[in-house]
């Protein structure tokens, strides 16, 4: 155990009492980062972090984030620091400005330790498609298991214990699914609640800034700093900001949760199913009501196709600016078209090219009605169903993934209900823009399993309260390979 394994409030106390300094926190992180063999980093920025720590100024009692070290997914623009989104097409690109999230964290005197790897341009969920290759799950020392993606480096680094929190982005599940595989709290808020300015777009109608922490309370503390309107992001909400830690003590007694029946039914592994049902029993024993309700099998099975059509269509249009001229390496050519073709041929991996083809195909005039517009209508249907299920309950509770982190070489049947439903349902939170949080609740074969809670729009304070209640029940908080815990259940 070290200071980095503690909740933010306790680190803050230790900093205030002079038991540890920001520079010592950076040194503690440096040792861990140097021994981190998960391939989690695009760039390690320890010298810069040491300099920042040395000139941080006097302790700020009312700023819980003062001197707190973090790592940042490499699709957030960082002024003066190469930012590639793990894509060769952006090699050498150094942004001239900070993403709003990075700027806010800087103003709060957080210390940036490293930029982390991702699936190229945040597309994908395996942590294998970025230009740095595979990122490994620190809970599996044999490195056979993935940590998931696309925020693979942030998840791996935090599960290794390198930092106090890690930023991520979530378009389909890219924070909340790897959080499940890595024993972490993974959170994304209501769409528009945290500014996306400076986050490389993947599919803006689905993109959310999210992050990983070791504790639910830390997620709420961070949200107090990051939530709010930003004039640089025209989709950012004007909704009043609250104190998101205010309800943390409320617990789950008297609350009502809804479990989507088909998601449980589509999980193949009987042990995982049993573990989830045991958690539900424990939640009921604590005084919460849990109801099971159907969503509609066909509608659930359509999530993935709907997601792929919409996200690829938005991606191909948003990434049209990656033309080999404005950013990244220049490969030359006789015409604009040739310059662009050279850069995109060399700069993108197979996965990206495939997704752009799907997206462009869906947007072609002759296909729009049958693909893009039909997907949009189906999205609306799905969202309507989510909202109707949420009426009269406090949140939807489901397993975040069907299993522990899969092995790299494992193949899944892409038409099975386990894949189409249990592996992809977290996109419900992106379609609807509702706040959603994953947290660990059990171990299986030495690997963590996570649950997910999805709540009502702009009611993040209530979602944190529920998550905190469940965290207390499971006793699984503060997990990393440096601070393994047994749990209560
Ligand atoms: N795994 C999903 C995909 O492949 C989600 C990615 C994300 O949320 N950025 O696109």
UniProtKB/TrEMBL annotation:
InterPro entries: Amidase, Amidase_dom, AS_sf. Residues 24-463 form the Amidase domain. It is an enzyme of class 6 (ligase). It comes from the Bacteria. GO terms for molecular function: glutaminyl-tRNA synthase (glutamine-hydrolyzing) activity. Gene3D superfamilies: Amidase signature (AS) domain. Keywords: Ligase. Its EC number is 6.3.5.7. The keyword Ligase applies. It holds the Pfam family Amidase. This is Asp-tRNA(Asn)/Glu-tRNA(Gln) amidotransferase subunit GatA. It comes from Candidatus Alloenteromonas pullistercoris. The gene is gatA.
């Amino acid at each position: 155990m070290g200071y980095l394994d503690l909740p933010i409030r306790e680190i803050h106390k230790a900093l205030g009492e002079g038991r540890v300094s920001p520079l010592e926190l950076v040194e503690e992180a440096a040792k861990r980062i140097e021994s981190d063999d998960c391939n989690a980093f695009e760039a390690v920025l320890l010298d810069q972090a040491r300099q920042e720590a040395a000139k941080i100024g006097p302790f700020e009692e009312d700023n819980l984030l003062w001197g707190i070290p973090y790592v940042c997914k490499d699709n957030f623009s960082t002024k003066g620091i190469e930012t590639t989104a793990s894509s060769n097409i952006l090699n050498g690109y150094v942004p001239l400005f900070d993403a709003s999230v990075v700027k806010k964290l800087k103003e709060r005197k957080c210390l940036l330790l490293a930029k982390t790897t991702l699936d190229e341009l945040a597309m994908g969920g395996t942590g294998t498609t970025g230009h740095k290759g595979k990122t490994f799950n620190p809970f599996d020392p044999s490195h056979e298991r993935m940590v998931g993606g696309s925020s693979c480096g942030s998840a791996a680094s935090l599960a290794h214990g390198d930092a106090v929190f890690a930023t991520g982005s979530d378009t389909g599940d890219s924070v909340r699914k790897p959080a499940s595989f890595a024993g972490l709290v993974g959170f994304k808020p209501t769409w528009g609640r945290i500014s996306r300015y400076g986050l490389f777009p993947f599919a803006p109608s689905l993109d959310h800034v999210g992050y990983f922490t070791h504790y639910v309370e830390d997620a709420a503390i961070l949200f107090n700093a990051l939530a709010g309107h930003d004039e640089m992001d025209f989709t950012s909400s004007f909704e009043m900001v609250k104190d998101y830690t205010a309800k943390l003590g409320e617990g789950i007694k008297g609350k009502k949760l809804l479990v989507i029946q088909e998601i449980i039914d589509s999980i193949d592994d009987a042990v995982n199913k049993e573990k989830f049902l045991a958690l539900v029993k424990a939640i009921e024993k604590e005084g919460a009501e849990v109801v099971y309700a159907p969503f509609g099998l066909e509608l659930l099975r359509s999530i993935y196709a709907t997601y792929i059509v919409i996200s690829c269509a938005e991606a191909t249009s948003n990434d049209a600016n990656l033309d080999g001229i404005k950013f990244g390496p220049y490969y030359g050519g006789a015409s604009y078209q040739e310059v662009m073709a050279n850069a995109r041929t060399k700069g993108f991996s197979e996965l990206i090219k495939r997704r752009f083809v799907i997206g462009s195909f869906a947007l072609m005039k002759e296909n729009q009605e049958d693909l893009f517009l039909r997907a949009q209508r189906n999205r609306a249907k799905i969202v309507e169903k989510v909202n109707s299920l949420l009426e009269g309950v406090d949140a939807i509770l489901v397993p975040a993934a069907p299993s522990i982190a899969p092995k790299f070489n494992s193949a899944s049947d892409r038409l099975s209900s386990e894949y189409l439903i249990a592996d992809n349902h977290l996109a419900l939170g992106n379609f609807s823009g509702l706040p959603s949080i994953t947290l660990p609740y059990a171990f299986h074969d030495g690997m963590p399993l996570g649950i997910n809670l999805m709540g009502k729009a702009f009611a993040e304070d209530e979602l944190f309260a529920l998550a905190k209640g469940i965290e207390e029940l499971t006793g699984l908080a503060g997990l990393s390979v440096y601070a393994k815990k047994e749990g209560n259940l």
